[in-house]
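Forwarding the complex inputs:
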Amino acid sequence: MPLSFNYGFIEELKSHSMALKLLRSPHLSFIASFLHQVFILSNRRTIAYTELVGLLENHIQEIRDTHGEALFPKSAKSYLDDWINTQTGYLRKYLPKETDEPECDLQPDIEKVLRWLEDLQGRRFVGTESRLQNLLQLITELSQGINLNTQEKLTYLKRKQAQIQNDIEAVENGQDINLSDTQVKERLFFLSDLSRQLLGDFRQVEANFRTLDKQTRKTITLSQAQKGQVLDQVFEYQDVIENSDEGQSFSTFFELLMTPEMRDGMRKNLQALLKHKEAQEIVASDTLLRHLYSYLLDAGRKVNTTRQQVTDQLRRYVQEQSQDNRRILELIRDYEKTLHTSIEKMPITTEAITELDSASIEISSLFSRKLYQEPQQEQFSIQPEQQIDPHSADLSQLFALSHIDEDQLVQHIQHQLTHEKGQTNLQKIINTYPLEFGLDELLTYVKLACEGPISANIDFDNLQKIEWHIDGAPRSATLPTIRFFRETN
Amino acid sequence: MQSEENNFNAQLETLHKTLKIRLLKGPVFRENQRQEWEVLERDQTLLRTYFSQIGLSLRIDDVEGYAFLKQEDKEDDNTPSLIVRRSLTFHQSLLLVMIRKRLAEHDSEESAPRLFVHRQEIHQWLQPYFSDAANEIKQIKQFDTLIKKVSEWGFLKALPQHSDEFEIKRIIKAFVTAEDIASFTLLLEQRLKTEENEENHDQ
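Prediction (whole assembly, two chains):
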């Protein structure tokens, strides 16, 4: 779509665009802070309506606590409905396939506003070098991709080969060809920006599929095609989503994302970054980078489901229903017309005027009913019929739902860290503080390593065997090596 | 081995029994009875034979995922009908057509698999066909009674946690067909004609 910046166009955009409406809204801080927190920060693609109401209640309470009790007096539900109910609201509410609880998702335009607000706060230095490198690489890739001349292709590949040879020699001679700290930092910021953009684009891709679907259905409805022509249309329209540029690009993206090489490669490389001093700081503080693969997977899956659904439904509609549907709508228009004239001319009766098939059979047998019985009076008494000594009941299991004290384990780790000058591993901790509760406790350590308050490194390549005793019986588990270290800041 | 086979047969028999009873009691949906649905699709010939003995035909829509029984067309014999026909009032048939219309419009617009509407929207469909009531509360009550009736028939379903939102069940397509709508219109036209004739007589 060509961009336009003339006065008339922008004036029109100003009144139509949901994004601009949100930016103008006096409640911008209220709405944006909420939507950013629940959708963007946690990378949730969709949230159940009822849950969203609850989240908004909390949000309103938090704002009131710090900014004044009088703020936002309406109920969370009515605010939320305001944002949904308008024809093209900030949120899309729909009924998912499997449950009866409506879900909400951000409209792509609103996501753009939130991303823009992120950008606006321009937190870090602007790296130009990595972008230039990227540009160069893209241009080369393009020119190679469309160049059919074998000779030129060979020259290019030879040049690349020579370059690699140079690098090999340099490394063999002990020269350092690693990136400088600035270069690393710059690339990481670039990476983080790029990932953000990519994730931000998924809602748009999904919305575009939906728009394509709507347009196709509209074309079919409007076209006054005869039966024979409809058949041509079937072939023309049924794969409209799959064949679009967006559809094709997304298919390739999703296939690539699902390959095990992609998954393992991305996880491993991101893990490796955590070992680098400069990189570690940035990656550790950026949740998006740390969870990049799973975020991409979540987002990709959602888009993929939508694409699948839209493609299937559209194909079915084109093949079977569009004809029938149009006829029904025409008939209903006739019905409404007649209805209007008849309402003016005659009184409406409340008697039955017509009939329709039901779908069930009513069998009523006289003897299926019970004879009259005197209703029995229920007697309740607070006196227990059977006396049980309350002290004999063993309720300890009831109170022992979780007997593992996470804080205690954190302390174990910290003591061990102090003891070993800031670096230790799980085996050593367990040697010092033997497991009391067995597997549960071990898993709690693993949980702490994954998300916990102490920096940890999980090495999937090297396994470690951890042994303990429960009631004298030996137990062991083999798991990736987990190292804890103290952050140096 | 033998007993395992017996066991399996017994299970299948129970499933068939359940299916037959369920179908007699009302439509069966794939989304609610996945296991039974599979058997229904696989053994449909068996089931058809069973039901045809009592003059019923089994309709299965495997795309939309519902199945129900219909009275077979009778050829002048005097066998009684098993399936009751519901009598509809003017307003009930109106609401049914409006629901069917909303579904048709939805299908011609987008692919979202499930369609739900707010109670207020349904009120708005009905409003134009009711005389301007002085008593608005009474009118809304009337609308809600209609909605409740149509929900009992299974064409609308209130969402469990949200009593003001209704899913439009796609099975309405099988019950409010093109022919039905055409016959509703015809009926109105005929009534209009008789009314006009009577007026002419009066004059």
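The mean pLDDT of chain B is 87.
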